[in-house]
Structure formats: C-alpha cells, structure tokens
Amino acid sequence: MAAYVMIGSGGHARVLADALASNGIALAAVVSPDAELSSDFGDLQHIRDDDEFLAETSRECLLINGVGTVGDVRVRRGLYERFIAAGFRFASVIHRSAVISAKVHVGAGVQVMAGAVVQAGAQLGANCIVNTGALIDHDCRIGAHAHVAPGACLSGHVAVGDAAHIGAGATVIQGRTIGDGAIVGAGAVVIAHVPAASVVVGVPARAIERNA
C-alpha cells in the first residue's frame, strides 16, 4: 500500500487529515514550511522544504493537496501542477459521510468533505474541492481546480469552469454556467450565466468589479 503524504499543514490540511482518518487511512508525512505542526498531525515526519521532498522522495507515494482556496486558486493549482510535472500522483479524499452516486466521475486529487452530496451524472475535475455540506445535483460538471465552498447548492446541469469559486451558501439554479476563473460570492443566488473571470454577488447575483 502506498504511503500518503500531506502537502501543507493549515486548516484545510487538518480537515483532510480527519477525512482520511474517517476512512482508516493514516498519513506518513507532512510537507510544510511551518516551524511546527499542529497537534492534529501527531508525531508525523515533518519535511520543511519542497525541493528536498522532490529530490529525495519516491514517486510511489500518494500526495494530498492540503492547500485550500479563498477565491484564488493559484497557489493550490500551482502546487498540484508542479508535483504532477515531477511525476507524483494525487489521491482523492472523500469523507466517509459524503454521499456520492456510483455514476459520478471523480478526477485525480478530488476532495469531497463531510456531509457533501454529489448526484448521478456529475463530473468532478482534477484537484477540485467539494467542501463541507455542499450539494451538487445530477449532471453537474465541476472543472479542474474549482472550489464549491461549504453549504453551496448547485441544481442539475450546472457547469462550473476550471478554477472557479462558488462561495459558501451560494445557490446556482439549473442549467447555468459559471465561467473559468469566475467567483460567485457567499450567499449569492445565480439565475443567469456567469462570464469567465467575473465576480458576482447578491440576490439575484450581479457582477461587480474584480480587484487585480
């Protein structure tokens, strides 16, 4: 059985470690520049330097992307792409309390947190996050590196583009498209298509200017 290694040690990484434990999977090590690890990681091996890890670690281990996102996926995406290019693989993490249809396509490195529901025909792109209690109905498509935040609700046939962010508690009605890199603010209700790289907030959701 391959060893599991967490990349990152913040809040998202701690939640992932708990999700792994819910499935009886133990971590072997944590890669993080932090001087000390949270007690949640116990006495795991602590590797502080990415380059050292890349140079000395067997590609047989499975990585867990412990870097979360808050509307900006660049760090998480960059980490994923760097380690993939170096020959590593990322494991998907699905909390045992999540409900996922057997007819869902799950890409590499997907993370589905506690209480989430993903219905038949949905597609989850590589390195995406379906966070705590999120609801994804039938035939939705979640792009690579996208983040569906806690409590968000996507009705059927919603398409979420690569690296898009659906904020906590947001709702997207059926058949709508959220473009690549777009951000849907927390609590927004989306009733129209959202263009790529735009930001929408409110009820109903309306576009606002995006800060650089």
List keywords for this structure.
alpha/beta; eight-stranded mixed sheet; UDP N-Acetylglucosamine Acyltransferase, domain 1; 2 domains; 3 helices
Description of the structure:
- By secondary structure, the chain is of the alpha/beta class.
- The protein has two domains: 4-91, Rossmann fold; 92-201, 3 Solenoid (UDP N-Acetylglucosamine Acyltransferase, domain 1), CATH 2.160.10.
- The protein has three helices and 24 strands.
- The strands form four sheets. It has an eight-stranded mixed β-sheet, covered by helices on one side. The protein has a six-stranded parallel β-sheet with strand order 7-10-13-16-19-22, with no helix packed on it.
- It starts with a strand and ends with a strand.
- The model has no long low-confidence stretch (mean pLDDT 93).
Q: In brief, what are we looking at here?
A:
The chain is of the alpha/beta class and 212 residues long. The chain contains three helices and 24 strands. It folds into two domains: 4-91, Rossmann fold (3-Layer(aba) Sandwich), CATH 3.40.50.20; 92-201, UDP N-Acetylglucosamine Acyltransferase, domain 1, CATH 2.160.10.
